[in-house]
Amino acid sequence: MKNVKKLLAMALSGTMVLSAAIPAFAGEEAVVRMWTFLDPTNTSNGRSVALAQMIEEFEADNPGVKVVVEPQDYTTMTAKFLAATVTGDAPDIIWCARDELSGVLDAGALEPLENLFLSEWAEEDIADIDDAFYRFGERDGKHYVLSLSKNAIVLYYRADLLEEAGLEVPTTFDELVTVAEALTGEEEETGMKRYGLGQCFSTQNADSPLLANYIINEQGSLFAEDGTANWANEAGVAAMEWTKSTVESGITPMECLNTSGEDTVTEFEAGKYAMFPLGAVRVPTIKDAASFDPNAVQIAEIPGGCILDGWFVGVWSGSENKEMAGKFLEKMYTKESDKLWVELGGQAPVRKSTMEEIELNESNAYLQVMLDAFTDGWFVPNNMGFIGWKFDLNGAVQEMLGNGAEPMTALENAAANFNSANGR
Amino acid sequence: MKSGKKRREWLGGFYVVPAMALLIMLLIIPLLYTVYCGFFQYKYMMKGNYVGLDNYIYCLTDSTTRNAFLTTLLVTIAATVISIVVGLILALWIDKRGGFFAYIIELIGLVPWVISMVVAGLLWRWLFNGDLGLFNVILKFFGLDPIYVIQNKVSAVIALIFVMSWRTIGYAMILILAGLKGLDGSLLEAAKVDGATAVQSLFRIKLPLIKSQVLLATIVLTVSNFTNNTVPKVLTSGGPVNATNVITLEQYNLSFIYYEFGKSSALSVLIMLVVTIIIACYIKVARYEI
Lengths: 424, 290
Known about the structure:
The complex is a heterodimer. Chain A has helices at 2-21, 46-61, 77-87, 98-106, 123-129, 132-136, 159-165, 173-183, 210-219, 234-248, 261-270, 283-289, 322-331, 335-343, 352-357, 366-376, 389-403, 407-421, and strands spanning 30-36, 65-71, 93-97, 138-139, 142-143, 146-158, 185-186, 193-197, 273-279, 297-300, 307-315. By secondary structure, chain A is α/β, with parallel strands linked by helices. Chain A has 2 domains: 30-144 and 309-370, Periplasmic binding protein-like II (D-Maltodextrin-Binding Protein, domain 2, 3-Layer(aba) Sandwich), CATH 3.40.190; 152-306 and 380-421, 3-Layer(aba) Sandwich (D-Maltodextrin-Binding Protein, domain 2). In chain A, the strands form 2 sheets. In chain A, strands 1, 2, 3, 6, 7, 8, 9, 10 and 11 form a 9-stranded mixed sheet that branches. In chain A, helix 2 runs antiparallel to helix 14 (335-343) and helix 9 runs antiparallel to helix 10. Chain A is globular and about 70 Å long. Chain A starts with a helix and ends with a helix. Mean pLDDT of chain A is 89; it is low at 20-26. Chain B has one domain: MetI-like (MetI-like fold, Orthogonal Bundle), CATH 1.10.3720.10. Chain B has helices spanning 2-37, 54-61, 63-97, 99-114, 117-127, 134-141, 153-181, 185-193, 198-209, 211-226, 230-235, 247-257, 261-286; strands at residues 40-43, 46-50. The radius of gyration of chain B is 24 Å and the shape is flat. Chain B starts with a helix and ends with a helix. In chain B, 37% of the residues are buried. Chain A binds chain B through residues 6, 9, 13, 16-17, 75-76, 79, 82-83, 85-86, 100, 103-104, 106-107, 192-193, 202-205, 253-260, 263, 267, 270, 272, 385, 387-388, 391, 398-399, 402-403, 421, 423, and chain B through 11, 14-15, 17-18, 43-46, 125, 129-132, 148, 150-151, 153, 156, 233, 236-243, 249, 253, 255-261.
């Protein structure tokens, strides 16, 4: 009996050791791992459906290759990727956030796409994708990423409410306040309080605040030439005073002080706000979830130009499957895939030629707004890291509204935080 | 005979090798690596210059980190005390009453502990929502003004303590109840015969005998609350104006917002030291032998 127990115990120990080694020998399939916030198994999200179709086509065209998507939380994905490059477990393809791209390039974590496929592209193909987003991924004459989910922070508004009140879409910050005041009131049917302008000042989860647009509108950028924060000044104070007035006048609720970007989205969908700023890529999903007529969801450029955003997709420089990973990245950028991103995912096209073929109608009119925003919009510089600025600016608003700090003092503190965190 | 004993010892050692290897890989090596990283500049996971104790000094002197530490202490102590006291009261009541109703209370009490912290945080975040949340709908129903719980500096801290306590009361209750169920009934009967009142029985017999369970619950909940990142992140996001910015959120910010992995490693080591000291103090005070 004792011997049997010993044998069993040794067999178990052996099994544990073997089980660790088995995956290395299992199957001959080449696997391309990709980290993105999209989950191809999610059939209710258009972008995910488009991605799933691309994977299916790619695997059919390349027998023996499997694309494995490991969906990630988008707020920590880039940081996790950097950590994984150190441990050698990074995915072959990564979707980088805009503000973190510079740091990823500094770390040498991405392979120049010229080494994989770009050098083989014809000039007209390059010209077809050459825009501010394409150039954002350039360093020392090489391109490290291609942008997907090209985005711009725009103003969402409810066209039905504007029409009912006989108002036009605001084109200046003063008009924005006037329109928001007119739309603030009580919903007749539900008795729910509706605010003219939703904003969020969370320091953990938020898109760029209108405050930033205000400053850019006044002085062209948020940063000085040397990369330091350039908002503790007259333009910054004016922006803070404007923000304060939106809360004090009641067009933005005080509870926005600690509201996250996702809360604001849900609240807009529930009918709490008439207007609010958000990335334009969310139009299709917001229309789907709106508790009112989805056609009423429209977008417009924010006065002074929109802040551009997006995801920048590259191949890990340490990948053992660089060639195949590059091939799949290229696949996501083909003309056919671009159409899928547009038609299924509701995204703005990445190719100019695709845009020429799109017939604009009521349901996709927002694409034109996005394209206009891409032309007029403002990009964070890519020559150095610019991390945390959204949260630093929101922190300044919290200081002012929550602690009663003077706008200039709050902005100076936020600038000091930003400069210190970015090593300037 | 002697060689048989040696062989058994050798076999015993061999059997624990896989477990030890896992522990070393998953616990010891990352811990040592974190300590190591704390001595370097680590921006964007790129190893920079050796900075000695600079990262540790930064964590100890930075006012935001210091305030986050004090907030954490307040939230941890308050939530743990509430959980233990309410858990103890419920356990005593269930132990005395028994029956189906007590069983149902036991189950309800455990639900918050077993559901995901993200779900719990989101649930309460939406219940406390200013205009759409159930909390203010009820206030409105009674003709009262709405309270913006998460947006006010004081009420946000209270809400955080409340939700963290709500989450852990069931755990404390079950652990203490297990202790009460294991008590020797003859001791209580003897005390009763000797004329001891219910209060005397509680403080002189029951509580001393369930000291280990109470201490264990206190240690587990203190550590759980001190290192809880999920509930504060989901419920209040550290705001407003850093009012609920607990130490683990500060650590999260350093790592995932500012990419200061050197400083966040140093902060992790300091948090580990504080937690170790807290546990050691508990054990010392209660003279509990592990």
